[in-house]
Structures are given as structure tokens and as C-alpha cells.
Amino acid sequence: MRVLVNALSVNNLSGRHVLLGHLERLADWTYGEHDYLVLYHGRNSDLCRDLGGNVDWQQCSDLTAHWAGRAAWEVSSLDRLAKKANAAFMFTPSGTVVPGFDLPQVSFAQNPWALVNGLDRSAAGHLKAALQRRNYRSAVRKAAMMIFNSEYMRGLYRDNAGREEQASAVVYQAVDDKTHDVAAVMRETVVRKPLQVLSVSAMAPHKGAETLVEAISLLHRQHGIPARLVMAGSWPDASYREKIENLIHQCNMPQYVDIRGHVDRAELWQLYAESQVFSLMSRCESFGIPAVEAQVFGTPVVSSDCCAIPEVCGQGGLFAALGDAARTAEYLSKLLSDPAVWEEYSEVALNNGARYRWESCSRGLLEMFDHI
User: Fold this and answer.
1) Confidence band for 119, pLDDT divided at 50, 70 and 90
2) What is the three-class DSSP state of 166?
């Protein structure tokens, strides 16, 4: 059976991580039975790599790098390409389906941005979100099977569509084997920095950085804990970074908050290993891979209770209501001030993080072959 893999929407690091992690395992497990033709464009050509003799790659028009051009190209050209390739069905990680496409479609949903209320969107962003919600409703109606990267995402799709999908599975994403291996060594060799809190993400406005900064300030003023916050990750919105920097100064916390920006993989591993707690108070996470990566290093999590992070991190974390800086500070205090409590949560976090390997997480995707 030939599977057409529509990777034209995969334009960020997280999407690459998920698609390649799953595809590498599928290709290995189904060698000799199924093969894969992966569509890409010039801007995401770094996807292309040797995943085995049953994975081929086909470059498409660079117009498909943008969502509007991609939608037009898919309607006009994708059906013809699929028939020429003799594909049996199409797998797409966009969470949508292509209208008028003749073959069965399996849609992998992992982007909650359009489905979460209260996000800071421009006028164009509101239009894009409305179009995405419409397309997601269509996917629930028309996809032969929906794959979700968390129960949280499945719930968002069902709420948006007002109905259940024809068939579905929840397939979690994983932490790569190299990170697991490095963590096993660093847990034994790296000394924790007392009272260091780490936050890792692309710090967009919905990531809740202000809640975390306020919580760190409360730790100092009300709990008597001189905690230090390290924030690692890019800032796609310069005005939001300026807002957070102003808040840090208003709280008289510049010496206790370290904005690192983008860090390489080795530095990120070091931060996971040396920090005492990981915290991300986001309102919009379909999974939360940095939180799980932190757990692989035995680092407990404090996060918001409104997204997928509580689902995937389980008992290895504490979860406060969105925007509740006081409760966030209380949970941080609990982990930072009591070694016995920290050890308990660290052990649970470590055991939870160990579940997230591609070898086990990708197994659920095999259901789509039986279903088709």
C-alpha cells in the first residue's frame, strides 16, 4: 500500500520533530508492506532524509509554503498527483482535509491555535482562525480517520465540530532517544542549581510569561524564597518581550530573571538537568514537549491546568489555573523549599517522561492501516 504523506504544512521545528519521529518508525515497521511518498516544498526541504528504501520524497511548488497558496494548489493538483503515484490514501499532519480529494484521508491534528479563546490575534489572525475552524469541522466530517496528539486536542475538535469524528486515535509524540540517553548521564553528573526555575518555549503572548514573572516576584516578597528564573526560547513578538522586560523591572527582578533567547541543544539539556523546576503557564498547548523533556531529566513541572500539559505530565507536576500567579508561586514554593517533596515529584516525573519514546508512542499510528 502506498501512502501519500502531505508534509506541505510542516513549517516549524516542532512539526518536523513529530512527523519525522513517527515516519521513521512507520517506515521501519512496515517495510516490505507499505511505502511512503512525502510531499515537501523548498522552504521545508530540510525534512528530506534517508528513512529507508520505502520512503520517497517529491518537491512541490514553493507556492505551497504559504497556507493560501497551499490550499489552492492542493485543490487543483493534489488529486492528479495522488492518482499518478498510485496512492491508497493520504496522511496529513495539518489537522485538515483537502476538499474534493478522491482518496481516503487520515488527518493528524496537533495545532490548537485557532480553537483556543482569548488569544491575542490581529484582524488577519481572526480571519485565519475562522477559516481554520471551518476546515477543522470539515475534517471531522470527512476524514476517514482523525489522529490527535492528546485527548485535549480531540476534545477541542469535537467541541468545534459539535460532533464526533468517524474514527480516531490519540497518538502522543515522543522525546528522541538521544535526549533520553543524555538525560540518563546528566542526571548522575550535573548538580542542580538550588531555586532555579526554567521555562522553555517560543515566548508568544499566549505562553503566560507574565504569570510566571509575577509568581517569581511573589516567591521573593511573600514566601521568602530568592528563586531565579531562566527563560529559554525565541520571542516571535518583539512587543511582548518588551512588555515582559518592563514587568521584570517593575517587580524589581532584573537580577533574578535571565532571558536567554534561543539556545542550542547542548545548552538546553544543561538547563533541564541543572534546574530544580520547569514551569510554563501557557494557555495553548496541544502537547507540551519541553515539559516532557524536562521530566526526562527528572525535573518536576509547574504549569497551567487549561491545556494538554497536565494530561501528558500526569502526577509529575502541579497545575494552577490560568493566570493565577499566587497559586503558581505556592506550587513553586512547595517544590523549591522541601527536598522530600521535590524528590517525590522528581521520581514521578522521571517515570512519566520515560513513557515518551517513539518506539511506543508511534504504535498507535498502525491503526490507520487496519482502518483504511
Assistant:
1) confident
2) coil
